[in-house]
């Protein structure tokens, strides 16, 4: 007898037997013979019943998912001596792993020839995909050491319990009792992040502030909205006797755009959600284009096919979103009657919502009324063309080079014009 791809000899029971059984279950199945030397010499086991009990207890308590239905542990006589034979079938819930190590290479094993070796990260992901399919939410999380402090806080705020049974019903825990990727997204250990940047003016030339948000998606949503709200100023006007306050961005539109970015992004990508705040707009850029079979016109009509159906259901249960497909309609309603309208763009792998600052034009008009004669003269020259160089401005206005440079710098600081190109190729435009 010799060891091979589907055969392993053990002189006596040791903890390493768990790794071998996991490897057989993850590969092609096999048999472990306890009471046989590595060279095939049968030495027997003095306490067969005790050894069989150790094996079955260890497999039940130390390996996840449950592997016992794929095991047959029996007494066998070989060369007149008693040995324990552990027959292992290839499991249907690969990858199997040591509960104490989790779904990491140090906890997942496969068979290579006559050896048991740790599985690579890519091999683990491949096994998960083959077993669970392409549904990201229901796929098993690589991290099984998850906590839910922020999510439990949100559920408690709505007087909704979040015990093991609720986690299983919502899809945070699979039927096999392991955490899913949905559980990972709502856990304190969520690996996906959102990045936010604040720019001066209307271009990405000058940074004013930046931040990165991590943790549970509930925590990220809460912290991002609080951060954005700091930049959502209120403009007061007196069209009559009463004061009228207008926020730069309708709060409901901001809320819906943020929920869209969090709930509907494609989390199978590892990149971050990006939010950019300019003087005249806010941009939300998320990974993942439109779901297959859905066109932009469908989205604007309120048709919705949630990419993350279970995640959307959790937000719905917590009354954070009202119904699928209403977000874009609400955003449009918030800007009804405004001269500037939201813009939605999509590519194969990204989705972008741009919310305009409804007060920006009024503020710009106010600033224009305070411009000097030279500033107004150059601004008028720039607005008459799509783009214009400094020398062209000098020729048209008759201003000196130093005066033109000084006024252009002032208009750039006010955010009334933008600059593109470098050196002799520098151009100015509104």
What would a concise description of this structure say?
This protein is an alpha+beta fold and 430 residues long. 35% of the residues lie in helices and 20% in strands. It contains 15 helices and 18 strands.
Which features does this protein show?
single chain, 430 residues, alpha+beta, 35% helix
The percentage helix is 25-40%
Could you tell me how far the N terminus lies from the C terminus, measured between alpha carbons in angstroms? 84 Å
Major beta sheet, strand line-up:
10-9-13-14-16-15
Alpha-beta content class: alpha+beta
Shape: elongated
Specify the number of helices. 15
Poorly predicted ranges: none
Largest sheet geometry: 6 strands, mixed
Overall pLDDT confidence: 87
DSSP strand count: 18
Radius of gyration: 32 Å
Estimate what percentage of residues fall within beta strands.
Answer: 15-25%
Oligomer: single chain
Structural write-up:
By secondary structure, the protein is an alpha+beta fold. Helices cover 35% and strands 20% of the residues. It is built from 15 helices and 18 strands. The strands form six sheets. A six-stranded mixed β-sheet has the order 10-9-13-14-16-15, with helices on one face. Strands 1-2-5-4 form a four-stranded mixed β-sheet. A two-stranded antiparallel ribbon has the order 3-6. Strand 9 and strand 10 form a beta hairpin. The longest helix is centred in the first third of the chain and has 15 residues. The protein is elongated, with a radius of gyration of 32 Å. The chain starts with 6 loop residues before the first strand and ends with a strand.
